[in-house]
Design a protein that fits this description.
The protein is an alpha+beta fold. Helices cover 41% and strands 11% of the residues. The strands form two sheets. The chain has a two-stranded parallel sheet with strand order 1-2. It starts with 17 loop residues before the first strand and ends with a helix.
């Protein structure tokens, strides 16, 4: 298992792990999203990380995997989870 600081990215590169699923109707809890982000940040460095989806929400331009309301709820959970992770990683209220 990798230990903090073991993973090195090439200079100028960022990692965008998929911390929310694109294909389920389950909306991830922001605390879960934050936990995932913090765990990866401890490996690659907080400055080298940006959260993302694990894939796109549409199979084709006209075929969606989940309803748009769920897509937006998942993206809101991603944004809130990133705020929580940022507070944990960078400090703050």
């Amino acid at each position: 298992m990798a230990r903090p600081g073991d993973a090195k990215l090439p200079k100028g590169r960022k990692l965008v792990p998929g911390v929310i699923s694109h294909s389920t109707n389950v909306v991830e809890h922001p605390e879960l999203v934050a936990e995932r982000l913090v765990r990866v940040a401890k490996l690659v460095g907080r400055e080298n990380l940006m959260g993302g989806t694990d894939c796109g929400f549409a199979q084709t331009p006209h075929v969606r995997r989940v309803h748009p309301s769920i897509m937006w709820a998942k993206l809101a959970a991603l944004a809130e989870g990133a705020r929580i992770a940022s507070k944990q990683l960078y400090g703050g209220a």
